[in-house]
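dumping this here so i dont lose it
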């Protein structure tokens, strides 16, 4: 299996267009600190095809940035075979609209996420005149086979609905993805509201894990002044503190352990922040854009 990290930021990106916080200002001064919205490309072999995990508002730039994801000269044949969604949040789904030039777009998600996209964003209705949009359901605990020898399974992590879908009924609104290749396995979990035994089990025998690094501490959304809720109340366990994920991540046997989906208020957006050394002591890193792994 090949994995390419396409982006590592939470909703808004770094910098966020209307934000002058330390992280955003730092990224304007130091372009190498910029982070696009969190996403991965995965493939069963180096020859592709590729699947993208989440379709961010940066998707077409993320595709253009890497030769592997661009079409061959001459035709209109993209090596992109489909989109796998962890949730229906806007930072993970707005990119679907940018794929309308394709003759077909194939989406894999839970039933709740598809319902949100269809009823709330009207994705199917809007895209139908442009492209052949097809959907396959990711059922709780069931593996789906992908082209190139990959298998993917959803692990429910929370029932938190996007704000635009607040009236929708309960369901698996946010999942972690377990992806297995012929050799190697990966768990991608950009939102973790609760480190459940089921999630822990999947994380415990994966070769490579990417987990929710949205906020460094639980009070961060409040101290930064953009929300009255804590990180946990927003559906993201913080990295540090009593409910923090760092200790659990440190104990996982995975060869590669990364945080991703960083909010622009997270001190880790500054590469010189002392928090990096704390994580490094436990073998944990912040995922970098463009990184290629072969778990
Ligand atoms: C999240 O990760 O919790 C969502 O993307 C928040 C949002 O952008 O509304
Ligand atoms: Mn998000
Ligand atoms: Zn900011």
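and the seq i came up w/
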């Amino acid at each position: 299996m090949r994995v390419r990290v396409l982006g590592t930021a939470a909703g808004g990106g770094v910098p966020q267009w209307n934000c002058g916080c330390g992280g955003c200002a730092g990224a304007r001064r130091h372009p190498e600190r910029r982070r696009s919205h969190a996403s991965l490309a995965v493939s069963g072999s180096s020859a592709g095809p590729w699947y993208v995990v989440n379709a961010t508002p940066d998707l077409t730039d993320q595709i253009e940035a890497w030769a592997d994801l661009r079409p061959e000269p001459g035709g209109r044949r993209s090596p992109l075979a489909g989109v796998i969604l962890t949730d229906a949040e806007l930072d993970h789904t707005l990119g679907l609209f940018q794929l309308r030039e394709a003759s077909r777009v194939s989406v894999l998600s839970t039933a709740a996420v598809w319902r949100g996209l269809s009823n709330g964003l009207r994705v199917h209705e809007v895209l139908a005149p442009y492209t052949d949009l097809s959907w396959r359901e990711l059922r709780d605990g069931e593996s789906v086979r992908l082209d190139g020898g990959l298998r993917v399974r959803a692990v429910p992590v929370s029932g938190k609905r996007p704000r635009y879908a607040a009236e929708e009924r309960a369901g698996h609104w946010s999942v972690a993805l377990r992806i297995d290749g012929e050799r190697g396995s990966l768990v991608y979990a950009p939102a973790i509201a609760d480190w459940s035994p089921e999630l822990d089990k999947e994380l415990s025998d994966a070769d490579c894990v990417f987990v929710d690094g949205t906020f460094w501490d639980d009070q961060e959304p409040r101290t930064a002044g953009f929300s009255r809720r804590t990180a946990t109340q927003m559906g993201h366990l913080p990295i540090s503190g009593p409910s923090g994920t760092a200790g659990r991540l440190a104990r996982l046997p995975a060869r590669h352990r990364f945080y991703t989906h960083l909010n622009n208020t997270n001190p880790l957006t500054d590469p010189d922040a002392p928090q990096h050394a704390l994580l490094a002591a436990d073998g944990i890193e912040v995922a970098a854009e463009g990184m290629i792994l072969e778990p």
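The chain has nine helices and 14 strands.
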